[in-house]
Amino acid sequence: MAAYYQLLNRTTANGIVTAHYRSTIHSQGAWNPHEQHMAPASGIMATELEQFFPRSDMRIGRMSFDIFGLIKFGEFSISTRIIRGGKTIELIESEMKADGKTCIVARVWRMCTQDSTAIAGLEDQSISHPDKYAVWNGMQRWPGGFIQSIQARTDENYRSGKAIVWLNNDLEMVEGQTTSSFVHLIGMVDAANGIVPRQEGKFTWGFPNLDLQIHLYRYPTGQWLGLETVQQYGNDGIGLTSSILHDVQGPFGRSEQILTLRKLA
């Protein structure tokens, strides 16, 4: 099966796990052909974070990705280490580097789990199953190999700036490895910034995100990612894309992306 990345090798030294990868055409970005899209890039970092000395009594509760600049297409490394260990919470960091430069730094809080059914309750409401939505080709306004790998569905309520869009893909994250539901879904969240742009027709402003913040009140399952997304532009060159995240079982968390608004030539 086709994949977004090829694993070249992985080493462990002094508690730091370093994996070397090569990106495939399916991870190609939408803003520039010589960069990776942040969605699969966050997915491959989620792979390393999920596999880093896993503990059965903990799960990832928050993921924070800071994008240092262009995410270079081609070969790169991801190094993962514990920043703050503990019995009930752990802070773990992954750094993606290419050609000696940092591309992305990701930090996750891994948190202890326990049965909290007695007080459980959500305010985020479920949305309809993806089968209830029509196939949508609106993502095709974007170029790049990653966008070509995505299946999308939406409904008649779609509009610029706000919509519900379901996404899926048929690719593995790493060639020759089975992709977990967690990695599969996290590897599409960043696409939220491209599904409801507040501009019709040809873009006159760019709006790349500088980060991706994900908070998970439930661990996601399945293959379909539902994005209940709102995009907002401020009047001083800064915007925000916010999403409630869904799988076919219901809402499982939220994401935020801060945007730098830039006039295109």
UniProtKB/TrEMBL annotation:
<feature type="domain" description="Acyl-CoA thioesterase-like N-terminal HotDog">
    <location>
        <begin position="29"/>
        <end position="111"/>
    </location>
</feature>
<protein>
    <submittedName>
        <fullName>Thioesterase-like superfamily protein</fullName>
    </submittedName>
</protein>
<dbReference type="Pfam" id="PF20789">
    <property type="entry name" value="4HBT_3C"/>
</dbReference>
<dbReference type="InterPro" id="IPR049450">
    <property type="entry name" value="ACOT8-like_C"/>
</dbReference>
<dbReference type="InterPro" id="IPR049449">
    <property type="entry name" value="TesB_ACOT8-like_N"/>
</dbReference>
<dbReference type="InterPro" id="IPR042171">
    <property type="entry name" value="Acyl-CoA_hotdog"/>
</dbReference>
<feature type="domain" description="Acyl-CoA thioesterase-like C-terminal">
    <location>
        <begin position="136"/>
        <end position="259"/>
    </location>
</feature>
<dbReference type="Pfam" id="PF13622">
    <property type="entry name" value="4HBT_3"/>
</dbReference>
